[in-house]
Every structure is written in structure tokens, then in C-alpha cells.
Write the C-alpha cells for this entry.
Amino acid sequence: MAAIYSGIYLKLKSAKTSWEDKLKLARFAWISHQCFLPNKEQVLLDWVSHTLVSNYNKKLELNDEVVEKLWTYLDNVIHSRRLQDLLKSGKTIGLSFSIAQVINERLSEACSQKTQQNIGTVLNCCSGILSTPSLCIIYTAKCELLVDLLSKLCKLACQQLSSDNAVGCQLFSVLQLTFAQYLLIQRQQTNPNRVFGQVTGHLLQPCLLLRHLLTVRAWTQADDNHVRQHLSREIRNQIETLLQAGLFQAELFSSYKEELLPEQEVQEKKKGAFKSLLLPVNTVQTNLSSDFCELALHGAVVAGSVSLLYKLFLDSYCKAENHLVCFHMFSRLFGCLRLSDLQQGGREDMLSPVDWSTELLALEQLLSLVLSSDIYNVASDRIRHKEVQFGFYRKLAQMLLTHSQASIPAWFRCLKLLISLNHLIVDPDLDDLVSSAWIDAEASEPRTKKPQETLINTMFQTYSKLRQFPRLFEEVLTVICRPAVDELRPPIFSAGLTVKLRECLLELPPNQILDILCLFVEKCQTLIIPAVEGSADMALKLMAVCSVLHAFLFNMRSLDDVTPFPVVLRTQNLLAKIQKGIIQPLMKLLQVPRREEEKSDLWLRKASDTALLLVYTWVEVDTLFGVSCSKYVSPTAEIAGAVTEPAARQGHFSISAFLPGLREQSWERVMEIANSFASPSKYCLELLTLQKMKMILMQAKADLQALQHAAAFILESGRSTMSRGESEPWDGDISVISDLTYPTAHWHLVVSNLTILLPYISLEDVEYVANVLLETLMLAKAQEAAMDQEPSISTEKISLGLMHSSFLPEMKILHCTFLTRLIIKFSTVLPTATRDPVGLPLQQLFASNIPWHEEILAPCKTLDLLEVPSETKLPKDELSLSWKTLEKVAQCIVQLAKSGCPVTLKESQLESCLGLLDIFSLLKLDSFLPSDCTRCFLVLLSLLANTRASVSCSKLLLLKFLSTCLHLLRCLQAGRNANSVFKVLHASDVLEAVMTSQFTASKFFSDILTVPLWAQYLQEFQAFLEDFLQMVIERRQSVRLNLEKFISFLVSCKPDTGAAKSKDRKNWNPAAEQLLLTTFTTLCHVVTLYLQQLPEKKLHSADVLSALLEPVVLQMVRTVEHGLQSSTPNQLLPVAFIPSVTTLLKADLSHPVRRGWQKEPSEFLEQPRIKLYQEFYSQILRELPCAGHNLQFLQPALQFLTVFCSVPELYPGKETAVMVGFTIKKLLSDPAITTQVIQSMEMELTEVLVQLLGNCSVEEFYAIMRLVLQGLELRNVWQQKAKMQTKEACQDPSLISIIVVPILETVAALLRQGEGVLVNPHHVSLAFSILLTIPLDHLKLQDYSGVFLGVHEVLFSIVQCHPKVLLKAAPSFLNSFHRLVVSVMHEGRQKGDRGNTDEFEVILQCAHLVERMYTHIAAEMEDFTVFSAFMVAQYVTELQKVTLHPAVKTHLTEGIYHILDLCIERDIKFLNASLPAGVREVFKDLYNDYNHYHKAKKQGEEKYTA
């Protein structure tokens, strides 16, 4: 043995031995049990450490390959199981401090070379050392080495994030481990100045850069998933913790105060004190300003860091008495931003748009922190501190307004925050604010539009509350009247701002609103109106001012009978001024005869727009005030009685009656200018016309001719622009109407007022409206996705809104006309089949010579024949003409279906038909006349029976088309006019036509029978047949005749053409076979259901119908047998087969019951039929485990098993119910059967098990239960990942809700059975080992809630039901419960804006459960008193690490108070003596609060308790 020892040791030390041999010997010595070296492990560790140190100290010269192998050897030793076992056994093994220095140097080299190759082994060694306590001491004992390591690792991580290479996990795992070790050491250090020096000297810059790069990294799929989802967030949190604990400790506050406060402030508070030499703020500023990263990154890193540092500063020091210090810290950190240079006169162009965005975002975050922390107290700042804060914010506001950045959202938000701090900050520059942020701001993008509106809304609310709204709009008027390129100015009031304005105006005193309006009117009269002629600039300003007048007058509170009379009088005078001072001068300008080329001048168009907008506004407001306020007297009251006279005299429409002194000829000139362009003028003319219609209708005797002319004028006004089909969305602002938004505005006006217009327009105009409605709906279907994202009004949205409204069915004339236009559109899409009229069924359904709905249209025809109104009723024969036509069309459709001459549709035509069918589905069918419902039915029947797709068509598109037609036919059958179709068609003809067409179409589908769309089509087909057959039976008219004809047709159908699969498969049509089976099934189901409901008196009818079904059943059996023979091996049975056999079996089983027979199935079922069911049962059992998640197979298969298992005598051979149970277990073991699939077929599964367990023997019952208990092994879940273990399942987030939560629920349920069931205490204690493996961090909130509740329920079940076990396993219980407490503290820490309220409620519920557990322990478990001090120590140790949200803290504090109730004086002394310094302070605060609040309250309650 000595030879072995001396030989190896000497060879390792010998210079003659090659390094390859030395390494082999070292490896052998480590793993071999035959090598007995004294303290062998330590000797070998010392050897490799000394060798590496000597190499890096240049005492040895080794090549790179040998060095790498030495590192690998060290890595293998550190991570070896042997070393870990030795350390666990208590053996002392360590590393030298020099190896830590070597590791740091190696990482330093990698940093300087900017390459991370060949450092993987070093990082592995580092990871092993840091995760092994006895080895980690080389870093923890010398904090400088750990700080240096952390700095180097941060720099390496920054290099990796900055490169184009994928981010790996190794470096970040080591980094996270190093952060954890440093934070542990940092908390234990007692010298805050030393910690501050470490952080600022070595860690601040790399940490801030790393945090920035982690935040802005655009992660890719190539990056490691664990880094992206977990480590990056964890490291960012660790950086924040490190900075808070290192830079902003409580002991450092005096240094911050001395440095930040002006000298006189310090002297007042700390007279004669020695000034600290530590300048923390200056140190931080120096770190931020130095070049610690690339110049391109530096600005962004600093901008992202100042808000973080300020937040951490406020978290540590923000108290009421420290607000001034907090402000000065804000001003110093703002000085680190490049924005601060602009205050000193720096150039604006030094910042790019991206830089502006970054800097303004940082400023916004700083200001937001100032506002939320309530640092700025206006009164205190003015009285005590000479407005130092106000002056700073004023300069800030001036800088922002001087360097306007209206394209950046954060710029608006910064200004909004300044106004929220104090409106006086921006008040001196209010005109600049209004100009740059509102009137002249180019904020057209949605991302800037919203913050701009928020800012302006803040201005509205602020000046409204201060009752200074006139001052705000005085500045608005000033800005509008400034020289500017008004044509480029956006509209003053967007739709959102108009809503906000309305809210403010409703709160303002009316006199203030009138002050603003008078100011605008006066400015118009004195400045703008005199200079408007020939000046485009003045005309644009006039339009802007009048749009404000319009907005105010339309959104202010209306006058009513409780309005004070002075306000009413002042309003009257204002309207008189508007009329005389603005409207009349503008009208005079417009009346002047002009040459043709002058009519297109911009100033004239804008003057026309303004004049008519004001006229409309004036008329609307004047009318409203007159109706709502009896004290109001209109300025034009003297001509109110003559409103309709000009119209009556002239015989056509005129609005000159609204304007006194305006002659008819002059008004025509105004209208000529207004109508020459699609502009606000044209729209206002329509509004005025509509207003006149309303005024005429309000009179005692309405002028019908005037109403007709007015309605015709409105429709004609927009007809030319609507016919072009070009439009853009409109935001509702009249002043911005253009060529492309005018069609939208016009259509909005027409649709919104259809109830007024419709009674007075001609049939041609009704058709025009219906046609526009149809065209826009077709466009809407084409642009559906884009429309959802558009907030403005569009023609498509308007039309869709009308279709969805309840008004359209009330407007029967339009509803019916729209249907006719829709039928016409269908006929234009379909190609003509033949020139013979018989081939044109659709064309006959809209023939103009047929009175389709004369009873509705008769009143409208008098509008076209005003001179000769017809009072005679239509003869009965003429009314029946439409039904005769419908009968003729119906026969035509049936003949075409029978003759097999369908129209062939191309794919584009099929798509067009589908679009029209979507529109068809929007109609309210119950509102139609019976004849119209019949027309609808015939259109759909024609599409279904008389069309076919071309060979090149998409088969899936054809399936969708057929399904849609069948669905709409079902909707018609469900309506109140469903029976009207039988006036023109026999039920059997309909069924035969549909079946013939579907059999023909099914030839296309033989290769797509497995797609989901085929199953959906079959469902629609079955539902249509079921509804139609039920309707036939319920009508009780020719039921037997119709069914006989239909059954005869079905029995004659042979989709397989009599060819068995084995002989000839050429003509075999599996799709048609499924259709036929579905038809048989539905027919049997409907008739059987009807027979079961028949009373005893009508048994004869039952016998007749039963006899009718016999050939159907026979044919059905033959079809099923053929289908089973023809089915493809290794493929699931077709969907249609299973319901067919189920229905067949149900019918067979119900037959003897109906007759009152009491026989066994074998006695009344024919042997071939029993054999069929048994074969089918066997095939279902074979296919069920292979079905995967195919619910369309699984659900009907389980339904069949339910029926089959209800008759145990049907089991083939020696098979029993156990076979079915085994098959179901096998199905559920399939990895494809997820929780969602099980939930979807839960009902069917339950029904099968009920039948199985209800009809089986005792032995079979026990066998099935054994299968169920074996299933609790959850093999299907574990197989989702190969060789997965329980702990790994807990680490996989995707398995939390699937595995972990159900396991916890099951364990809790078992534990609640009590000691009577779980006799062995060891079985109960096993629950603790489960709880310790379950993760409580890095979970989604939904998963966290489920896991937390599960763990809590397990613990609570042990507490309540197993108290004896609990006392023995108290440490395990406390450990598990403490994990819950820690997780709640982590999730419930303060995070600024909590975000989702529902999510925070979950955290509060968890905190409440912890409180409940603490309370229960204190109240019910006296033996736990010995652990009370330990529980309090655990709690305060964790509390010292986080800042809890107040609501969460309340729950936890109430709980721990109950544990403190158990603590005696000796426990309190022990805690005060043993807790570390920082934790002791937390405990003292907690104990003081306990004595002050809880104990005093408890003693008070006890005093008054009997």
C-alpha cells in the first residue's frame, strides 16, 4: 500500500512525469478504492488547484490543452457524487482562496478578449463551488472576490446579450447563483458605507447595463427558453434588490440629506453637526455619466436607470418629512438625462427621434413617481421652501413646450403629469400648450392620439373645476386666429374630445358657457367676417371658430322651464347675434353672382361650409329651445307660421323660410355653390331638409307634397356619390367632411332617419335604398376583419347595424324590397341553365308584373299617383296571382331536380353565393309575409337542388355552401310561416329533391369523409331532415301519403349500385351511403318518437306507421352490413354508421315494449340482427382505444355502448361488462385524451358506466372497480413525457393544472377521511414529502392559485383530522406551511401599479388563508406553543426581505399576532437577542404594533367578556 501511495504522490509532484500521465493518475486516484492516500481527496484538490494557480502565476508554463484538461478534472471532482457524499458525512474538504482569484482572472480574460469560448468548464467549476457550502467559503469569506466575480459575470452576460449569437443557459444560471450568494452576504454586512462602496465601485454600472439589455432584448426561438422566461426576470429582480440594499440603506439617509439639501436647510435641522465625507448622490451621478458602455447605448441605459434608482430611493426614504430630500434627488437624477442639457441652452438636433422617445419616457416615469408619492405639496413648497419645486417644474414645462415633440406619446403624458401636479406650472404658457399640444399638433397616429386626448381632457377638467373654462378657450381662440397654415390643421374636436367637452359643459354654469360663445361670436364679427372675402386663410379660421361654436351649442345643457330668465334672455340675444352678425353677412357674400371659375375658390367653398353649418346649428338649437323652454322666444318667431309657404308656392323644396330677408333666387345661388362639391355644405343642406321635414310633421296638418319633395331631395343629394362605391370612414365631425367621407355621412343620415323618410319616398327610391344596403353589406362581408379594427363610422358598419337592429323588420316595405333585391342578386350570380322559362325559377321570383306584397306597397303607390289616388281594393284573383306564380316556380324547381339538369357553378360563383347567404342569414324571417317566406324557401331549395359545383371547385367550399343552405332552410322551418311552403309544394317532393341533389353532390366527397367539415355537413343534413319530418307529422295532413312516397324513394336508392366491395368498387359511393344511413336513422328516430307519444286510442295509426318503417329498417340493415364489409381496415367507422346502428337497436328494443311483450331479447330479436349488433359491438371495442381525441367518433360510440350494455344478454360469447370497462380504461390511458376531451364526453362516459354497473353481476362489479383503481396510477399522464418522475412533473409548468392540482385534491380528500381510515401515521406523514416537491414560485397566477389552495387544503386536513401525527411531524408541517407564507409574501409584494384587479384578489385570498391557518394554530393547538417563537422568527426574517402590499400585509399581520399571543416573555427576550440586526428592527416594529393595536384590543374585549 505504501508503494501505491508513494508512487502516485511522487509521480504527481515529479517534473519528469508527463501531464497526460499525471492527469490519468489523478483521475485513477480519485475514483479508485485501491489507492489509499492520507486525506486523499484534499490532496488531489490541492494538487489541481496549486497547478492551475502556478500556471496563471507564470511559475509553470502549460499549453492550453493541458490547462483545459486540468479545469475539466477540477469540474469533475467538484461535481462528483463521491465529494458530495464525503461532505454530507461531515468530512472537511476545502479549496484555496487562490483558485477563486484564478477563476476571476480567467473570466476577466474572456471579458477583455470579448470571446466566451473555452470558459464553459470554468463556469461549471464556479457553479459547483457556489452551490457547495464548504467550497463556497473561498468567495463568501472574502467578499471582494465575490464582488469581482459578480462584476465579471455581469460583463460576460452583457457581451452575450449584445452579440448576435443565441443566448445560452449556463452563464445566466451561474450569474443567478452568484447574485443569490452576494445578496446573502450583503444582508449580513454591518457597515453600510462599505457595501455602498462595493456596489458603486464595482457593480452599479455592469448591473444597470445588464438590466437594460435583458429588458430590451428581442428574444428569439434560438435563445434558451429557461433564460427567456425565468432567469431574465429573476436576475432583474435580484439587481433591484442588490441596488436597494447597497445604495439606499436606512443608515445612509443622513448622508443623502446632507448632500441634497441646501446648506441653510441642513443647518436648521442639524446645527453644528460634522458633515459626512460620503457623497452618495455625486457618486451615483459620476457612475451614470462615465462611459461604461458603447456611446449608442449609453443614453438609453441611463434613461432606463434613473427611474429605477429613483423608485428604489423613494421605497427606502419616502416619508412626509423627507419630501424635500426626495425632490432634490429627483432634480439630480433628471440632471443625468440628456434632456437637462436643453434647459442649459443645448441644441435640439443633438437628440434623434428615438433618443427623444427614450428620454421623455424616463422623464414621464420620474414625474409619475413624484405624483404617486405625493412629494409636491403646493402650499408647503410656497411657504417653507420659496417655491423651489415650482420653479423647477416651470423650467421643465418651458423646455417641453419650447421643444415640442407631438409625434411622441410620452411628451403628452409628461405635460399631463405636470398639470396634475399643479396647473399653474403650465398656466403662464397656456397659449403655447394649446398650440403645440392641441390646435397645431400633428398627432394623427392612434398611439399619439390617445395620450393627446387624455392631456386635453385633463386641461378641460382642471379649468372646468377651477371655473376658468373661458380663460382656456380665450387662448384657444387666440391660437386659432394666429397666422398659420390652417389647411394643415387637424380638426379641433375629435369624436373622443367632443364627449369630454360635453361632460364638462354639463357641469359648468351656463353664464360661463355663454361668455365663451359671446367671445367667439364677437371675434368673428370684428376680425374674421370683414376680411373673409377673397382670403382663404380667413375662411379657414372662420370654419375653425364656427366648428367650436357648433360643438358648444350642440353639447351644452338645453334651456328648459327651470332655467333662470336672465340666462334665457342672454341665450336669445346670442342666437340673434349669430344670425345677424355672422349668418346674414355670409349669406350676402354667397348671394353675389360669380363667374364659373370663381365658384371653386377655396375661400368661397369654406365660407359656404361655415354658413350652412351655422344655419343648421342655429335652426336645430332654436327649435330645441323653443320646444323645451316656454320662456324662450325665437328671433324668427314672426315668420314661424309661414315656414311652408314658399315650398307650397314654388312646388319644390326651399329652406329660405328659415332665414328672414333671403329671397328665393338668392337661396338658389347658395344651393348651387353648396351642391357643386361633396362637402360639409352639401351635408348641412340635407340636415336642414330633414329638420324642415320634422317641423312640417309637427304641424297640425302636414303638407304631403312638401314632405315628398324633401325626402326625394335628401336621397337625390347623395345618389351620385353613393353610386361610385368609393368611401372612407367618418368620425362624425361635420366640419371635416370630404369627397371620400361624404358618402359615409350621407348614408349615416339616411339610415338614421329611415323611419321619417320611408313613408314619403317613391318605390324607385325604396329600391335604391335597398340596393345600396345590399351593396354595402356585400362590401362589409369582404372587409370584415379590417372593419373590426376601425373605430370610426363606415358605410359597411352602418348597414350591418341596420340589419342587426329591430327597426328594419318594422319597415316592411324596405324589408320586402331588400329581399327582392337579394333574389335579383342571386339570379345575376347564377348562370342561366337554359333559355326555356322552366329553367329560370329565380327570375320568376322577382318578376315585376307580379304583386308580391301589394298589401304593403299599395299605400306607397299613391305617392307616385298623387293626382289620381286609387281607393279601390285589388281583386282577390290578383292577390292570388303571386301564389300561383310561386306554385309554378316550385313545380319548376322539382322538375329540374328530377330531370337532373342542374346549373354548374364555378368557384367564384360559389363564393359569391356564400356571401349572399351570409347576408340572407341576417334577415328577420318571421317579419316577412307568408308569400315572402315561401319565396325564401324556394330560393334556398333552388340553390340546393338545381345547382352543382364544377369539377375544379374546392370540395370544402362546396360542403360549406350546402351546409349553409340546409341551415337556413331549418331556420325557415322554425319560423311562424313555416307551413306556407306546403301551399305550393308536397312534402315528399321537397324531401326527394333535396335527397336527389345531395346524392349527386356526394360523388365529390368520397375522399374527404374524414375532415371535420364533412361531419358538420352531416349534422346539418340530419337536423334539416329531422325538423322537416317532424313538421310533416305535426301538420297531420297527408302524413301517410307523404311518408309512403318518401320511403318508397329511399328504398329505391342504392348508392353502392349493388356491387360488393370484393367484386367491384368502381361505382361504390361511401359518401352517399352515409347520407342514406343518416336519412334512415333520422326517419326511424322521428317516427319512433311520434309513436311513443301517441295515446292508446290511436294504436291503429301506430301500426300503420310501424308497417311503413319495416322496409326502411330492412334497407337500413342491408346498408349497414354492406358498409361494415366495405370499411377500410385500420380506419375508424364512418361517423354516420354508429347513430344508425344505435337507432336500429333502440327501435328493436322499444318494439316489444310498445306491444307489452315481456320477453328476453333473444326471443324477439332475429338471430341475424343479434349477430349484426354483436359484430358492431366488437368493432366498436376494437376501434375505441385508437380513436384519440376524435369526439365525433367517441360520443356516438359511447352512446351505442350505453344502449348495448343495457341488455347484458346481447354480449357475444363469454364476454362480459368487464370487457367494456377494460376498453374504456384503455381509451383513457391514451396520451391524446386530455382533460378537455374528457370534459366534452363526460355525460356519455357517465351513462355507459351507469349501465355497466347497473346491469352487471357482483363479480363483474369488483373486476371493474379493480380496473378503476389501477387507473389511479395515471399512466396516461406520465407517458406524455418519457421517463418522467414526480419531481420533474412539478417542475414542468404545463403539468401543474393537469397533474399537481388533482393530486393535491385527491390527497386532501383522503386525509379528510380521518384516522379511522388512514390508520398508519407513516402514510399521513408521506403527504409532507409531496408538499415539499411542489413548486410555489415562477407560476402563472391561475396555476399558483390552484397549487396554493391545494397545499393549504392538505395542511388544513392534517391539522383537523390527524392531530397526533401533526405533533410528531411538527417540523415538516412548519416547513411546508412556511413555504406558503414565503410564496404569499413574494407574490404580494408592492409592485407599483397592481394591474389586473382580479389577479390581485387571488393573492388576497391566499393571504387570508394564511391568516386563517395562523389563527387556527393559535386557537386549537396548545402543544404548538413551543414552536411559536420559531414561527415568528421565520416570519420576520422573510418580512425583512420584501415590502408588502398594505392589503396583503394586513392579513398576514393579523395572523402572526395570534402566534405572538402564544409567546411568553422569555420567547420575546430570546428573539430580541438572537435575531440579526436588520431582522431585529423589523421584529421590534412588529411587536410594538402588536402591543399597541392587537394586545390592547384583545385585553379590552376580554374585559367585557363574560
